[in-house]
Amino acid sequence: MTDTPNLEKTPVRDKSRFAVAMESDFVYAFKRSPVAIVSCIVVLILVLSAVFAPLIATTNPFDPASLNLMNGFTAPMEPNAFTGDTFLLGTDDQGRDVFSTILYGMRISLFVGVAAVLFAMVLGITLGLISGYFGGWTETIIMRTADVQLTFPSILVAMLIFGIAKGITPVEYRDQMAIWVLILAIGLSDWVQFARVVRSATLVEKSKDYVAAARLIGRKPGAIMLRHILPNVLSPVLVIATISLALAIIAEATLSFLGVGAPPTQPSLGTLIRIGQGFLFSGEWWILLFPAVTLLALALSVNLLGDWLRDALNPRLR
Amino acid sequence: MLAYLIRRVAQSGLVLLIVGMVAFGMFRFVGDPIDNMLGQERTQEDIDRLRGQLGLDQPFAVQYFRFLENAVQGNFGVSYRQGRPVSDILLERAPATLELAAVSGFLAIAMGIALGVFTAIRRNGFSANFIMSASLIGVSLPTFLIGILLIYIFSVELGWLPSFGRGETVRIGNWTTGFLTETGLKALVLPSITLGLYQMTLIMRLVRSEMLEVLRQDYIRFARARGLRDRVVNFRHALKNTMMPVITVIGLQLGSIIAFAIITETVFQWPGVGLLFINAIQFVDIPVMAAYLMLISVMFVGINLIVDVLYFLIDPRLRADRAGAH
Amino acid sequence: MLRTIRYAAIAVALGSAAQAAEFTWAETTDPQTMDPHAVNSAPVLGFLNNVYEGLVRRGKDMSVEPALATAWEPIGAGEGWRFTLREGVTFHDGADFTAEDVLFSYQRASDEASDTRSWFAAVSEVNVVDDYTIDIMTSAPNPIFPSSIANWMIMDSGWADANKAALPDKEAGNYATLNTNGTGAFRVTAREPGLRTVLEPFDGWWGEAEHNITRAELTPIQNPATALAALLSGDVDYINPVPIQDVARLSENPDVNVIQGIEARVIMLGFPHEADALKYSAETTDANPFADPRVRQAVAHAVNVPAILQTIMRGNAEEVSQLVSPAMNGFSTGLVDRPAYDPDQARALLAEAGYPDGFSFGLKCPNDRYLNDESVCQAVTGMLAQVGMRATLDAMPVQNYWPELRADNYDMYLLGWSPGTFDAEHPIRFLAATPNEEKKLGSWNFGGYSNARVDELLPMVQSEIDADKRQGMVDEITKILQDEVAYVPLYVQPLVWGTRSNIALTQRPDNFFILRWVTVN
Amino acid sequence: MTEPVLSIRDLSVEIPTRKGVVCPVDGVSYDIQPGEILGVVGESGAGKSMAGNAVIGLLNPPARIAKGEIWLNGTRIDQLSGDAMRRLRGKEIGMVFQDPLTSLNPLLQIGDQLTETMLTHLDISRSEAEQRAIAALQEVGIPGAADRLNSYPHEFSGGMRQRVVIALALCAEPSLVIADEPTTALDVSVQAQIVALLKKLCRERGTAIMLITHDMGVIAEAADRVAVMYAGRLAELGPVREILTSPSHPYTDGLMASTPLASRGKSRLHQIPGSMPRLNALPDGCAFHPRCPYVADKCRHDPGPQGVEGRAACWFPIVRERTA
């Protein structure tokens, strides 16, 4: 190869692991890319405010008893005609303070999004590893199920799972069940892309010598897959994870548009947008605008972060 | 080559069978169709009589095999809601979805590739970064919101484009097309942008990363070392190699466009199979739902097959060594 | 605040004679079929009222007018009714209208396969006297029979036999499902189910046309926001319904008119009277508090209906105290006031009934059946929680809702009722009478409410000829239902139509859109 | 001496990195005469290909030419505009890459890749370009060239493919060819054929060839003159016989001692201690001093003069009586 000048740092022993990390190219590239910094900050702010929602939010929008219907449709920063209360970002049709509902709603959206992606990742990676490593019949079965899976658009999968879950779960658990069904539905329609990436990466890694060597010294397939192949496959998976996190959050919003999303008394960000969309023409713009902007900020920064991560982690693109 | 094709078709058949099984199994939980077929003043006795007539009181297995047996002969039964053979309804509504999918698919692919190549070639240019971030907005907002905002801006405020429906259509044989009428074309604009935007962003990002990968290859450096013009290097050499892996993904994207049409058709009241499916769910019209799923999976599996064959034909390396195994 | 327009007939000063024009309109659901006897539902009957006609019809003020029958009088002491038919009337395909067609339509509409069978429960036999006279005998005196058959539409027997549509076919559909041949003011010239239906005036119509429409097209638009955009951008001339929240904004818009009125539909809360225990309570699993009238009374006091009307309904609905709206025949004018909003009294009643710190239960609601149904249920959940009745709300699409109610999977439910006969007897027969399969009574009385006096009075109301005596009995029933809080009626659903400013039309409480009263200026 | 095809005067290439500027090529000067093969040798990372890339103007940013001049056939080319430089590549300077497997576009037929290059630079008709392509393939020793035009790269063996690469590099008749490790990816038997082919083409066409390699055997076999690079600087420059038999720079001496040459019989191979320093951590004074057996105090402080024809870049060049 053309002899690129070697730029590795001289071997260091004294610096702590953190100091080494801070000096690595990854962090260096991070500091120099404004897009990455801004989106990282935005994501941090949103996630932290969601996590500490009970402290930041003025009211608890999910407790029906605390709502005063007369506060409905109050414009931002203007006192309500009947009750005189004022709200930072106004209230929705149920008198819920939009600002607190966005925080609580984002909690649900983030929780559903992260849990769905984790579920899809675990499922996708395992199936991808197995189908890539063993090949033959297992691979055909898994890949054909992937085809079946892709035939069903994620929205459809969610609606049908929702139908089933509603059918079987005893009713008193129905509210908590709704969230888990969402996670299952979105996760189930997401695992395919992980499986495909991991499978193709496993095929590549499998042909490499170090895997043959590991096999030679009698390592069990499971160990080989986890300790040897998986670490080399992580970077594309990580990138897909960030992108599909954004997609999962939006899928939850789309599902609530079709009336299958989070329960009405605990609106997620997506449900808020669905409610808000009804008021687009009626003048209560704030019910749609603020949740939509929050969702856009969240999804956009997660996407941008994912994008930057892909370029940063992809060693050859430096 | 032939053995490979046969095996693929067999696999696709298996996929369809599984889809049919899963789809039919799920419909039992979506609601009771009888409610929507009888008016307010019905009695339990009416309900039982109709249930018997429609054969819904049979055990699940019997219903499923009767459904399969008919489906194979192309008879998908009669729609509970419209009281007409489902195959006729699908035939009527398919052109709308296919035309919408074709236009948004073309838009997504053409723009996707063009922008993908542009952002790859001018990797650090300002405009390239701007396009990359702006395109993300397409993926960061739910499709229904984009659709409604487009309607709000272009139909209500500006009044340039129709806010819903497909405009006048011209019937040619049993295909109705919206391409030949002015209102038909205008009606296509907003829905195809809403449907295509999401796919376009994905294709663009894929083409970009694939193109960057190719531009790093030695044969590109060699082409430059031979003094070939940038245009030749980028488009004749790099693009051709970029397209190879992209084809399969574009094939999958097209498949998901048809499936994604559900949302766009609901928002734009586009008279396609997607809207038909949503209505079928609302009125628990099981024959239509089952037929829709079979239609979608046939289309999807078909596209998969075509993409594989295409891949086989184009890549000389595959064709050369006659490797049957894919 | 509420512009109550009882019978909203917009008498627009017709300056110049408006020249003929095309008209397009949109509704959320498409009429399921073109067969007048196949489905007894408002969207279908409302649409077909423009194509087929009954012996009688309802005028702009809902009063019963002669249509295909010019006159009718009771036979003997109420054994039936004799109708004299209109002469010189032809069907759209030119066939003459005679008593034969009325007999055929009776046989078709009252057959097992037809959904409108329940209208003829009281009819014993029908005999043709001559070409233009027909007798319809009833098993018992039935004073409201003529007004209850306004939606019974007459089909030409020759046309039906020729096209093998002698009976409605719900399972596979037949010629009558897609094609029409009525005597009405309009003919269906194009029908693509679920997509669009086109009507053109029938120039051989016997009546005089008050409209100037040359062509009318109905396209269903499911998504409310899209429908509104279509109206605002002028793609359609009229939409029904207009989302409540958009009424204020639209009223200010110069090129759009909002026509408001009250519909015949009463929205109410229902209780599991018969159940011996709550199904969805976390702690009260061995008792059914709602069996105790005091608890039901507490619910009535806890729900702040004015607040719901003010915010969710934007002042466009009217509270109601009984099972029918004021526009209906038989409305008890003396029993108009409903229990006041008084949370303290609600808590007192709960304590008195043995639930000082309240209880949890499951509230079932539809989310796409009535106007803002889910939002109203959320509001009710909040208000009941404030007095200790902690509800977990389960809102679902309507196709899943009815099976859940029929299977008694609820502790409280939301129900809307619009009486087909526009008479107070209708909801009593379906909601208050003790459920009885043979006599077809109380088929929608999910909670199983039962009161001997009500069951005793119902047949008398059905056969009482003297209007005052009948009203007295209806008032007594209404009083019983109020005292026992069988249901908690909340409000009458508002009727909100939106039209382009150049359109004049008539809005009727039964939400039927009659094309022949439309003028495009 | 005729006018050199290529002459590099005090060429320096810099790469700004976050830890300061690195100089892979530091003040190098050499000429290549027409028909002459100049071997450029050195351990990997010594800056030999960087100089080649600088000449043809394909330096990957952020690397850039800091100072010095590059003359091609008497005209200066290091300041040419992008397009002017592009027209020059292929026409005046040909390049041969190391790995034949990846140097050819897998999806284009050989014939197309040849005719395309010719049509870009020479205004000849397509059919004439095809004739020349066949001739080019024959010249590099491809059997049955005429009917191999429309076959694909993967239908050739490694050695054959490198021949095609060479044909491509020469098809527009450049006066200079930069061969960057052309034999490294090939097995030994094929290497000899490629070296012979390069020598034949150089003699017949009078093209000057810059042969970049780390393999002293290839240098001995093919090069007329040789430039030894160490840590970005020119250690020694001169006719191959002279440099190989009696190197005057300690590094070259060490290199020769560690290369098994038939002429030197079975003496034990000598191993130069240590390894070449990294470019961003060069020792003071002469870069070779930590590994130099003859190191003196002066070497540790003073980097020593640039190597030029006949004088090594060393304070104490090894002086031997010229045996050959």
The number of distinct β-strands of chain C equals: 19
Give the neighbour order of strands across the main sheet of chain B: 1-2
Cα(first) to Cα(last) distance of chain C is 29 Å
Name the poorly predicted regions of chain B: 321-326
Compact summary:
Chain C has 15 helices and 19 strands.
Summarize the SSE layout with pairings.
The complex is a heterotetramer of chains A (318), B (326), C (521) and D (324).
Chain A: H1 17-23, H2 25-32, H3 34-51, H4 53-56, H5 98-134, H6 136-151, H7 154-168, H8 174-188, H9 191-206, H10 209-216, H11 221-257, H12 269-278, H13 285-313
Helix pairs in contact in A: 3-5, 3-13, 5-6, 5-8, 5-9, 5-11, 5-12, 5-13, 7-8, 9-11, 10-11, 11-12, 11-13, 12-13
Chain C: E1 21-27, H1 42-48, E2 56-58, E3 64-66, E4 69-75, E5 80-85, H2 99-109, E6 123-130, E7 133-138, H3 145-148, H4 157-162, H5 175-178, E8 186-192, E9 196-201, E10 213-220, H6 224-232, E11 238-240, H7 247-252, E12 256-270, H8 293-302, H9 305-311, E13 318-319, H10 343-352, E14 359-366, H11 373-386, E15 389-396, H12 398-406, E16 412-417, H13 425-432, H14 452-463, H15 467-483, E17 487-500, E18 503-504, E19 519-520
Parallel strand pairs in C: 1-10, 1-11, 14-15, 14-16
Antiparallel strand pairs in C: 2-3, 4-5, 5-7, 6-7, 8-9, 9-10, 11-17, 12-16, 12-17, 13-17, 18-19
Chain D: E1 6-17, E2 20-32, E3 37-41, H1 48-56, E4 64-72, E5 75-76, H2 82-88, E6 93-96, H3 100-103, H4 110-121, H5 126-139, H6 158-170, E7 176-180, H7 188-205, E8 208-213, H8 216-222, E9 225-230, E10 233-239, H9 240-245, H10 250-257, H11 297-301
Parallel strand pairs in D: 3-8, 3-9, 6-7, 7-8
Antiparallel strand pairs in D: 1-2, 1-4, 4-5, 9-10
